Amino acid sequence: MQALNGLLHNIPSKTGGLSAYVTGQGSPLLLVHTVNASASAAEVRTVFECMGQHRTVYAIDLPGFGNSERTERLYTPRLMTDAILDLAAHIRTQHPEQTIDALAASLSCEFLARAAVEQPATFRTLSLVSPTGFSGLRLRQGPPGKTYGQDWLLALLKGPGWGRALFKGLTRPGVVRYFLNKTWGSRAIDESMLDYALWTTREHGAEHAPLCFLSAQMFSADITTIYDQLRLPVWMSHGVRGDFVDYRGKARFAAHTNWQFTIFDSGALPYFEHPQDFAEKMLTFMAQGPGDC
């Protein structure tokens, strides 16, 4: 079962088996889905479809999700960032001399931002949708590469054989719908995304990355420092409904000329609720280019 209506490619990667969907023609655009118990490229479907009319769009399945490798290992920001950089390297072979516009949602904004800091010449613009690391006013300026991972909690969640059973309980249809309702801030969720979420959580190894997520292994303790180091154009957008509405931390970047902000009347994934408006604003932002920020 495919998450998106595009060609599914296997991408050379040191992170193991890595997959991405591709559609469209034109300058490259890289999309990175969120991270949760049932995550996959299905979570960027409307952007993939809209932008495929204007760009060559690459939508990654991050390690541990979708069609990418789901082996039992430690899933960390380093692993996710490396996967994004490996896809970016592949994109550069297909689009020589072109830098990459990129979009990520929620926690994956941290991975994309880190990739752009490490390889600034690879990326042209960043679109960050409902990014983590902005709730409250506490700065996250821990040691480089430090995470909030709790090894004891991960061991507890895995248990001596009960990790899969726990994961199955967390991904029952009613539970997945409940958390999507909280993401949308309403019951008017995208039913196609729900269908794929339920399918992908039943695949072999589907529990490994989510259990790392639940034990905070993927959350960066130095993410404020990473965001501070971004010099390319950044468009940050978010909604006003649901569980993800605290972005007080963005005040730190309000005076930065390379940052732009948009608030949508939506939940945490505004491109599902306002696909055309979101696409138009994103196209306008990307058309400005680095020289205009």
Structure description:
The mean pLDDT is 96. The chain is α/β, with parallel strands linked by helices. It is globular. The protein contains eleven helices and eight strands. Helix 2 (77-94) crosses helix 3. A hairpin with a 6-residue loop joins strand 1 and strand 2 (18-23). The protein has an eight-stranded mixed β-sheet with strand order 1-2-4-3-5-6-7-8, sandwiched between helices.
Blueprint of the fold:
Blueprint lengths: L6 E5 L6 E6 L4 E5 L12 H7 L4 E6 L15 H18 L5 E6 L2 H11 L4 E7 L21 H8 L4 H8 L2 H12 L6 H10 L7 H7 L8 H6 L5 E5 L20 E5 L6 H4 L1 H14 L5
Parallel strand pairs: 3-4, 3-5, 5-6, 6-7, 7-8
Antiparallel strand pairs: 1-2, 2-4
Q: Summary?
A:
The chain has 293 residues and is α/β, with parallel strands linked by helices.
| Uncertain residue segments | none
Summarize model confidence as the mean pLDDT.
Answer: 96
Alpha carbon gyration radius: 18 Å
C-alpha termini separation: 41 Å
Helical residue percent?
25-40%
How many DSSP-defined strands?
A: 8
Shape, please? Answer: globular
Percent of sequence in beta strands: 15-25%
Which sequence of strands runs across the widest sheet?
1-2-4-3-5-6-7-8
Q: Which sequence of SSEs, written as H and E, runs from N to C?
A: EEEHEHEHEHHHHHHEEHH
- Derived from helix and strand composition plus strand pairing, the structural class reads alpha/beta
